[in-house]
Write the structure tokens for this entry.
Amino acid sequence: MADVSIKDVVKRYGSLQVMHGVNVDIADGEFVVLVGPSGCGKSTLLRMIAGLEAISDGTIEIGGRVVNDVPPKGRDIAMVFQSYALYPHKTVGDNIGFPLKMAKRPKQEIDDKVGRAADILDLTKYLDRYPRALSGGQRQRVAMGRAIVREPKVFLFDEPLSNLDAKLRVTMRVEIKELHQRLNTTIVYVTHDQIEAMTMADKIVVMRDGRVEQIGTPLDLYDNPQNVFVGGFIGSPS
Ligand code: ADP
Ligand code: MG
């Protein structure tokens, strides 16, 4: 069964239509990358899955349940953004545990889950430090920790690495893949970077102008691009 099912989804901003009937099925545990040029609708689609943006037509199901009218909090998702705003006056531990504190979870549960997330993300030594004392990569890991403690069914990433330098981006790619394996969760990951898509995805969704051009494994798309756009974008010889 699909964990996330996007059916005939349309998005309009006033009279401007930016999404033209998008269909994507994402399986349980799959790492799916939405890729395409700037403005093609990747963030809009992700925000519609998250419930941060209403859909104009079609349906979105998460875990077999239609969530069209379900607010973000009820969707069993967590989103990691490109600009990972941390609270500067809270420690790393308090930053990671913040969603649980807001949900008024017991202190023991918060401590346990923060401890586990910190262990997974190699942040245990830094729990009492403040964000300013961390490197860019460590801050990005704190932002991921904040998503992990919520134990969502689906993680949504919107260009999480685009503010990092090239070297760190490569390291973080590997870390996010490891995270996926360890947590065994479903990930929907947005990027405009073809290499990121090719190296990280189980399945790639290539988008253009609010439409899906092709869906397949990195190898499928490389070997059998359905059109010149996909071939050119993915970088296979034509
Ligand atoms: P991507 O993330 O692939 O760069 P977006 O999803 O941000 O693309 O945008 C898709 C299209 O929707 C673009 O043409 C963009 O200008 C338009 N768009 C996004 N948000 C809004 C908005 N709030 N109002 C009007 N148009 C928007
Ligand atoms: Mg975007």
About this structure: Helices lie at 42-50, 92-102, 107-120, 136-148, 166-183, 194-200, 218-223, 228-234. The pocket of adenosine-5'-diphosphate (ligand 1) is lined by residues 13, 16, 18, 36, 38-44 (CB under 6 Å). The beta strands are 2-13, 16-27, 31-35, 57-62, 65-66, 77-80, 154-158, 186-191, 203-208, 211-216. The mean pLDDT is 92.
